[in-house]
Amino acid sequence: MGKLYVVSIGPGGLEYMTIKALDVIKKSDVIVGYTKYIELIGDLIKDKIVFSTGMHGEIERCKKALELSKDNTVSIISTGDAGIYGMAGLILELKKDEDVEIIPGVTASSSAASILGAPLMHDNCNISLSDLMTPYEIIKKRVEFAAKGDFVISLYNPRSKGRPNYLMECINIIKNYRKGDTPAAVVKNALRNEQKYKIFTLDTFDDFGVDMLSIVIIGNSLSFVKNGEFITPRGYNINRKG
Ligand code: SAH
């Protein structure tokens, strides 16, 4: 009897993977994943059987992982957290009687937040701007309601060649509900070698080469920048005496 681990590998560098993730990868015979993510953990899996597929091969990849897990210990790899725009949901939707365990990890918004300061200190939400499986009308509605609700907003999949304008359109929706000096930051390749970031405001936001390796975080009505660090206050009264 085999087992399938759905393994979150964190943002990139191996040092941001959990000990549990490392442990299950080490004990797996077969590793399944998107070619680019397999490269991120290359050193760990030299002696394993590897099954990798390209960008849109998710269903094929999950079916293969489930099938192989009947007789082998298998890890299917997701970056960040497998339960956030990762492979965990699809695996559970396709699963019949296979033994599956999900290993959590550090998602892109947490990684980016640690670089920017502490922007996610209060209520926050993730919205993906990818319209491959969600109509753009619904995406815009969610952006609008998140802005109305004063959530800190992390935009995943913010910009691709096929939809160059969605990001600025969504920033403009948010501007209808937030002041122009609200911090809005881009982090590209968070906690990877090629990391780059910049903190703008909603008024000065420009695209900074935002792409599919980037995440955008927009503050709430109380967020501010101090000494170059993006902070959303939790609400402590730090001026109180005694
Ligand atoms: N499961 C992943 C998200 C996959 S969706 C997670 O939990 O992080 C892919 C999107 O995640 C990318 O388009 C980008 O917006 C974001 N992302 C993933 N890793 C990132 C990183 N290291 N730096 C910046 N953004 C990242």
Q: What would you say this structure looks like, in words?
A:
The protein is an alpha/beta fold. It folds into two domains: 3-106, 3-Layer(aba) Sandwich (Cobalt-precorrin-4 Transmethylase, domain 1); 109-231, Methyltransferase, Cobalt-precorrin-4 Transmethylase, Domain 2. The protein has seven helices and 13 strands. It has helices at 19-27, 35-40, 58-68, 88-94, 108-116, 136-148, 166-175; strands at residues 3-8, 30-34, 49-53, 73-78, 100-103, 117-118, 124-128, 152-156, 183-188, 196-201, 214-218, 224-226, 229-231. Strands 3-2-4-1-5 form a five-stranded parallel sheet, with helices on both faces. α2 (35-40) links the parallel β2 (30-34) and β3. α6 runs parallel beside α7. The model has no long low-confidence stretch (mean pLDDT 95). The site of S-adenosyl-L-homocysteine (SAH) has 25 residues, from α5 and β11. One of its GO terms (biological process) is methylation. This is Precorrin-3B C(17)-methyltransferase. InterPro entries: 4pyrrol_Mease, 4pyrrol_Methylase_sf, 4pyrrole_Mease_sub1, 4pyrrole_Mease_sub2, Cbl_synth_CobJ/CibH_dom, Precorrin_MeTrfase.
